[in-house]
Amino acid sequence: MVSIVRTLRHHTDEVSCCAFSPSLLATCSGDKTLRVYNTADFSELPFSPLSGHDYGVHCCCFSSCGSYLLSCSTDGSTIVWGSQTGEVAAVLQHPARSPLRVCAVAPDSSQLLAGACDGTVALWDFRSRTLRRCSAVSEASVVACCFSPCGQMFATGCTHGDLKLWDTDINFLHAEKDAHDLGVTCCSFAPQFKVEGCCVEFRLASCGQDSQLKIWIVSQREGAGCVMKLVHTLTSQSAPVLSCSFSSDGELVVSGSVDKSVAIYDANLGTLLHNLKQHDRQSLKCNRRYVTAVALSPTMPWIATGSMDRTVKVWRVGDGVSRTAAESRQTVCQGRNLPGHSRLLVADWSEEDVQTWLREEGLQELVSIFKANDVDGAELSQLNKETAAELGIESVGLRGRLLRKIEALKAEQSGSDAPDEFLCPITRELMKDPVIAADGYSYERESMESWIRGKNKTSPMTNLLLQTTLLTPNRSLKMAITRWKSSQ
Predict the structure, then answer these.
(1) Edge-to-edge strand order for the sheet containing 213-221?
(2) pTM of the shown model
(3) 429, 427, 428, 447: which is closest to 437 by C-alpha?
(4) Does a cis peptide bond (omega within 30 degrees of 0) precede residue 240?
């Protein structure tokens, strides 16, 4: 069962892209603006519309936890907006000022990618907002790009029809020549991946001017190159397919077409589930009702579709993911109401939490002293040389170790200074050993392992079942955190 819950009519030119965060829907248009809506009731936020581009906006996307909204335009710029305020956080210019057609952010929000009309992609370090490199990847316009869920590679598609895979240093991995006759229009990785031995498998959807939606298996074996295998060619739409996207659980893939339809497929079986024609029913003067954009909410049963008719339709798919799951993710992102001392601010720790922390830090000899003095988290955070001596800690070396660990603890838990993407979504602490889970998000290894051991086989971010509990080291994120810490 699929039903329309809202039609948004605020843009004054064709809608080019839609994107969801856990709590927001963003849309962009040839009218040079972005509009932002609350997914609770799809009311437009007070700071919307966002105006900062000189020409039409082609693409928009959110950072992983939804803190930032990104957009790119014919004006050659990518703008980073604060998603809660609408304020411009950064303006990133393509080195040659080439018109930008598409942008994507890595799952851990460490890198930002934009594809340009001159056949290049520009790759920025998202946290420092510095250009890492700009390289030619095609002889034609780059109109599609997306990161793999592990963030270690990305795909590009061009108007000549080729699909290519690259690592995050823009080293070539694989090419599918003429993947779509007359040109690729969009590509999207499924959020999950599968690991078998030394081989990692991803699913990639692509669509094009040949009126086809294709699903590929991308395999990468350690020490070897990438291989792409076509598993489904979906042909239910009768005109060029302009946009495609997977659901957050990877079970559905949705596409929008020039034939004014929205197709919803079972991504595993390749079977058509729904063919929605409501964009063809508008009584508008504009006859161009091509469906140019599709997006699926990561936490709610919403699909958003944008059209050349200037409207955005929001659809509800079945029962989908419950509102409780969305609330659960929001709670996880805020780091509250989760068990364990490490998920609380130091000042909120109980006496038992303090004693547990001492044992974890190799300060077992202090446990009895702290227990006898009923030291809780608030008192721990205020501890200094004098009060440590008053507790009866006679060893100068032991006092020094304790105070250094307390300062390090408070620095780790102060998320106000660290970029949000450096914080574990479970604990909201700065990550030391970040790993990528099957949901595509990065977590502190110890926290995620504890989550899984606690019989939580669902994603902390989406509340959906994890296809595998295997955790992959996120080396690029670890290096970025190290660089940030050394600069503080």
Answers:
(1) 184-196, 199-208, 213-221, 226-234
(2) 0.68
(3) 447
(4) no
